[in-house]
Design brief:
By secondary structure, the chain is an alpha/beta fold. 25% of the residues lie in helices and 15% in strands. It has one domain: Aldolase class I (TIM Barrel). The protein is built from eleven helices and 13 strands. Strands 1-13-12-11-2-3-4-5-6-7-10-9-8 form a 13-stranded mixed beta sheet.
């Protein structure tokens, strides 16, 4: 099936410079906030998960993330001096861990394009949670460079990877990545990750090696069953993600969303499923296990996940923060502005200053975009421009 091309308006405004001021109270001796690990926002949500974008560059041009008509040869990427250094990232991460973060996921763009990414992984892998355990350290990649880098990533201390793969049909996959990259090379990367053990977390995280498939109606929904058949019983968790309205450059439309409930129904009709309990508080994916003849979960066959941020909001227990490539802190995937932490670091702020700033920012967090989506104007967002997925990762 080929993608239906219809006219769309793609905005050309660069939102990367938009930032918010750190609350002044963060630096007052009377309201200074130390990191205790007990931090919660206005809805009682703790801070447990930090996603760090290490580059704004990618070698794919997937139309739901970095469409070629925007991210072309003339697109101006961030200069290297604007990016957080590995030492700056590690310093910020250490403060987040002091506030209770237990999991760090490296994202992009495509994180494996960041030169010497193994050095950053080595630094982050040395951090310990408040309980003295290793962090759950993971990375999301398009898999294009994974075959050649898997062993070095594992040796540096990376525990798990999640690979984005939107179909097994080579023609569909080449069309979706829009750079004519073959699916066989991504599958080779997945196998390399499995061989070196990039799926076994020493932090006790469930799920191991994961594959994310963004499902876009009219484009790749016919790949759902082939993907389920391919990875059933493989020890790899396949997750189906609803096509989301992140940013504006992807020209998102609700009629291109295939609800997760339909995905589960389609798979269940051929490969019976049974719903499983969440693996962790704040888990974004709803888990479904393959069932045996008795209707019970067959652990040998594994499970799938569905991420339903459009049709079934999970804002209520969201415990994730996102750090952009240039050091802005975003409190929601659908945020319009971030708080500039890089300026604090480069102005010689102390770790106590950083901890207080992050604490006050999170304590004031009210974000619940997905819960409010249905009440927003038809242009999705009521006229507010949101940050792009390629800038802060998924």
């Amino acid at each position: 099936m080929t993608e239906r091309h219809t006219p769309r308006v793609v905005p050309l405004v660069d939102q990367r410079s938009a930032s918010l001021l750190t609350p002044a109270a963060a630096f007052s001796s009377r309201t200074r906030m130390a990191a205790t690990g007990l931090l919660t926002d206005t809805r009682g949500r703790p801070l447990r998960d930090l996603r760090i974008s290490v580059t704004d560059r990618c070698n794919f041009r997937c139309n739901y993330c970095m469409p070629k008509e925007i991210f072309d040869k003339d697109y101006s990427y961030l200069p290297h001096s604007d990016l957080l250094s590995f030492e700056e990232i590690t310093r910020i991460a250490k403060v987040f861990v002091a506030h209770g973060v237990q999991k760090i996921r490296l994202t992009g763009g495509e994180p494996l394009l960041r030169k010497n990414i193994e050095l950053l992984i080595e630094q982050l892998s040395a951090l310990r949670t408040l309980e003295g355990r290793p962090l759950d350290l993971t990375l999301t990649t398009n898999g294009s460079l994974l075959a050649r880098k898997a062993r070095a990533l594992k040796a540096a201390g990376l525990q798990r990877v999640t690979v984005s793969l939107d179909g097994l049909d080579d023609a569909v996959f080449r069309s979706m990545n829009d750079v004519d990259f073959p699916v066989a090379d991504v599958l080779a990367g997945i196998e390399a990750a499995r061989e070196v053990g990039l799926g076994h977390s020493t932090a006790g995280a469930a799920g191991g090696l994961k594959i994310n498939m963004v499902v876009k109606r009219g484009t790749n929904e016919h790949e759902i069953l082939p993907m389920a058949r391919r990875f059933r019983g493989s020890g790899i968790v396949l997750r189906f993600i609803e096509y989301m309205d992140v940013g504006a450059t992807n020209g998102w439309r609700m009629n291109e969303v295939l609800p997760s409930a339909e995905v589960v129904k389609l798979i269940h009709a051929e490969l019976p499923l049974v719903q499983l309990e969440p693996s962790n508080p704040g888990e974004t994916a709803e888990r479904w296990g393959y069932a045996n003849a008795a209707g019970q979960h067959d652990k040998a066959m594994g499970e799938i996940g569905v991420i339903s941020s459009v049709t079934q909001a999970f804002c209520g227990d969201c415990n994730r923060a996102r750090l952009s490539t240039e050091g802005k802190l975003y409190l929601c995937l659908f945020a319009s502005q971030g708080y500039d932490l890089r300026s604090l670091i480069r102005a010689d702020a102390s770790d106590a200053d950083l901890a207080s700033a992050i604490g006050h920012i999170w304590q004031g967090r009210t974000d619940r975009y997905s819960e409010l989506r249905s009440a927003l104007a038809p242009d999705v967002g009521g006229g507010v421009r949101r940050v792009e997925m390629s800038y802060i990762g998924g």
